[in-house]
Amino acid sequence: MDLELNGRTALVTGASKGIGYATARLLAEEGCRVVIVARTADAIEAAARRIAEETGAEVDALAADLSVEEERIRVVEGIGDVDVLVNNAGAIPGGTLLEFDDASWKAAWDLKVFGYVSLCRQYYARMKAKGSGVIVNVIGNAAEALDFDYICGSTANAGLNAFTRALGSQSHRDGIRVVGINPGPVETERLVTLMRKKSAARTGNADDWERLKEPLPFARAATPQEIAAMVAMLASDRSAYTSGTIITIDGGIANQSRTF
């Protein structure tokens, strides 16, 4: 299916690896000029070279700490207008309420919550001025599958779900679509490390990945490419009537009934 994205400019944050990298690569394959952003210069520049070599597309890289407002402003002013914004940067650590002090809570939200809101605000203004644009927020199913042991992340994601729905509910007035994706477990280096750490804390044994993923739906995690495919579809005119909604990709986890 031709997504008709050829010639458009897309900004993808948190794109040095995982979902962000897969998304940037797929958008490049679809003919987008892609700009990718992450905190570490060496990593994001290597990712840009790899995508450009593999797809033949134009890929630019910019290193920036998106937890800092001045850096967010620098990114927007340096890149300029885009047709598609994909907010993906931000990984909130696990922990209970008593394990997270105010400083830890703020540090986690500076990137994932305020980073998303700031880039949305700045690019919404630019998209409104030209009468078109798409914003895709990659959030996380902890917004729906609420987790006592991931309380900072669940709360942040729930807030971003509400923000995305509210913004996208009336953005059609400005020619803009705003949508979100809630991935569940995705097979990235971070997920494997996290699940092995949880296993070690629970049983004293950090089981191998093949064993740990057996209880997951379909006995596997999603691939980054599966999430990227949804981003590309939502960013395209094939989804031209989709706004103010969240697509959950978690194998059904968020909808599982819990028994006690």
Give a description of the structure.
Strands 3-2-1-4-5-6-7 form a seven-stranded parallel beta sheet, with helices on both faces. The chain has two domains: 9-186 and 223-246, NAD(P)-binding Rossmann-like Domain (Rossmann fold, 3-Layer(aba) Sandwich), CATH 3.40.50; 191-221, no CATH class. Helices cover 45% and strands 15% of the residues. The protein has eight helices and seven strands. β2, α2 (41-55) and β3 (59-63) form a beta-alpha-beta unit. It is α/β, with parallel strands linked by helices. The radius of gyration is 18 Å and the shape is globular. α1 (18-29) packs parallel to α2, α3 runs parallel beside α4 and α4 runs parallel beside α5 (151-170). The longest helix is centred in the middle third of the chain and has 29 residues, at 102-130.
**Spans of at least 5 consecutive residues with low confidence:** none
Q: Determine the CATH superfamily of the largest domain.
A: NAD(P)-binding Rossmann-like Domain
For this structure, the CATH topology of the largest domain is Rossmann fold
Mean pLDDT: 93
Separation, N- and C-terminal Cα atoms: 45 Å
Please write out the topology.
Blueprint: E1 9-13, H1 18-29, E2 33-38, H2 41-55, E3 59-63, H3 69-79, E4 84-87, H4 102-130, E5 133-138, H5 151-170, E6 176-183, H6 189-203, H7 209-212, H8 224-235, E7 245-249
Parallel strand pairs: 1-2, 1-4, 2-3, 4-5, 5-6, 6-7
Helix pairs in contact: 1-2, 1-8, 3-4, 4-5
What's this, in brief?
This protein has 260 residues and is of the alpha/beta class.
